[in-house]
Write a structure and sequence with these properties.
alpha+beta; Arc Repressor Mutant, subunit A; two-stranded antiparallel sheet
Length: 485
């Protein structure tokens, strides 16, 4: 079950960990004839006994405690006819395997953080050594968006207790003003209003609308934030077209200057690796698993030779029996792991093929209105697997399609009844809702009540509160905040 939950991007690392802890398991790369791999029929039916993590056997154990049968059936450990190819490797590659997806490397972005980028600029400010220490402390107090959220008194206390630097609010504000000169513009602001003003005031080539934009932010920020444009026109005494151009100057600014720096992260950026590849050839959908799901694993040739040598040894010493006990444990553990990988392969393939059957219309076109309502139980009933198993399969798994890489969880949605009694996916309703809002007149946006009426006219039985819930799930603001000039 644990292997089933691991996404493809982490499977390779899990296999490496297993090989490091079990010397009897190794990854084959075209040398099957030299080191035969186990067959499915040799896989143990139950998980092997637990042994010491380091593989050591207590030397003080009495001989009778090391239970090793004198007659070991070597067919379980060494087979001359074993070609070393797991059953999941013998499947039709054109049906299950994508040969173009054989790359093993996972790109990881390496870069400095946003705060490190700011700290590298401190030396260019007109500050002495003590003031630079205060500036670096202020930079460390900024959040990832570039804002200073902490109170000045708290920062003064931190400087006194942690760095033995005594300062006051006046000096701290002066140094903060210097920090606000760093790139990107808007860094060090304490409010959104201050952030936007810092960016406008640093314009190298201000235009005719910059001064009015600064005036609006300084005197009428609340009216601007709430999009009360008619009231702004009356106060400023300007025509709608001029106000629109002034507003355009403001909305082009970055409300989160920290995000402007591409290295704004302290963690590596993960790359999504699809677990399944879905291709559409003249209307025929073909499903394949990523090559990372089919590792070439085999039992170590050295360990098999040790077992073969043991079978030919007649008079076994205590050390021989202890060595064979260790070898047997490791080989059984390796067999179990390979069998678990095979089970993961089969279960993932069966689950995705069932999802493909249920969502064939959507996966053929990419049209969300064709997506059918589907829950975990629907897939579990068709596959004969437990719901918890299906949940593990779809968790953190992705399928690559011609219209994007999609998480498997995306295919699951609740149903909604229409006037005709037909069950449709809630994703279909969300898509229609998104299209209606996308095509609306931004001068007069459609209210939630009006959206509800339109959907009801089209046969979808939804309430206004349901429309509001779907709109929020789509990260679409209310009509008032969607208004434009």
């Amino acid at each position: 079950m644990k292997l089933l939950m691991i996404p493809t991007a982490n499977l390779e690392q899990r296999i490496k960990e297993e090989m490091e802890s079990n010397p009897a398991l190794e990854e084959g790369e075209g040398e099957e004839d030299e080191a035969p791999e186990i067959q499915e029929d040799t896989a143990p039916e139950s998980e092997p006994e637990v042994v010491e993590a380091d593989g050591e056997i207590e030397k003080e154990a009495p001989e009778e405690d090391v239970k090793v049968e004198d007659d070991v059936d070597m067919s379980d450990y060494y087979d001359e006819d074993d070609e070393g190819v797991s059953d999941y490797k013998t499947e039709d590659p054109s049906e299950f395997h994508d040969p173009e997806n054989d790359k093993k490397s996972v790109p990881v972005a390496v870069s400095s953080s946003f705060h490190e980028y700011l700290a590298s600029q401190v030396g260019m400010l007109d500050l002495d050594e003590r003031q630079q220490q205060i500036a670096l402390h202020l930079i460390g107090s900024l959040d990832d968006d570039g804002y200073l959220r902490r109170e000045m008194n708290a920062i003064i206390d931190d400087l006194a207790f942690r760095q033995n630097i005594n300062t006051d609010e006046e000096e701290l504000n002066q140094i903060l003003h210097e920090v606000q000169k760093l790139d990107p513009a808007g860094t060090g602001a304490r409010t959104l209003e201050e952030c936007l003003l810092l960016q406008l005031k640093r314009r190298e080539e201000p235009n005719a609308y910059t001064e009015m934009a600064i005036l609006i932010l300084q005197k009428n920020f609340d009216l601007f934030a709430k999009k009360h444009y008619t009231r702004l026109q009356e106060i400023l005494g300007i025509e709608p077209e001029r106000l629109r151009k002034i507003i355009d100057e403001i909305v082009k600014l970055n409300p989160k200057p920290g995000s402007a720096y591409t290295g704004n992260t302290n963690e590596p950026q993960l790359t999504i690796i699809p677990d399944f590849i879905l291709t559409n050839t003249n209307g025929e959908l073909q499903l394949s698993l990523s090559s990372r799901n089919t590792p070439e694993l085999r039992i170590s040739k050295h360990f098999r030779e040790m077992m073969q040598h043991y079978s030919k040894t007649k008079n076994k010493t205590k050390n021989d029996k202890e060595a064979i006990f260790f070898v047997k444990q490791k080989i059984d553990s390796a067999k179990w792991f390979v069998d678990a990988i095979r089970s993961r392969y089969d279960t993932m393939l069966l689950t995705m093929q069932t999802i493909l059957e249920l969502q064939k219309d959507y996966l053929s076109t990419g049209d969300e209105t064709l997506m059918k309502p589907m829950i975990l139980k629907d897939v579990a009933d068709r596959t004969g697997l437990d719901i918890s198993t299906i949940s593990r399969v779809v968790n953190s798994k992705y399928v690559q399609t011609e219209f994007g890489t999609i998480p498997l969880k995306y295919f699951f949605s609740e149903s909604l009844s229409t006037d005709s009694g037909e069950e449709v996916s809630t994703r279909e309703v969300k898509r229609i809702l998104s299209d209606l809002i996308g095509a609306e007149d931004k001068v007069d946006p459609i209210s939630d009540q009006r959206l509800t009426e339109i959907l009801n006219q089209r046969g979808y039985n939804v309430a206004r509160r349901t429309v509001a819930k779907y709109r929020e799930q789509l990260n679409i603001p209310v009509a008032r905040l969607r208004k434009e000039l």
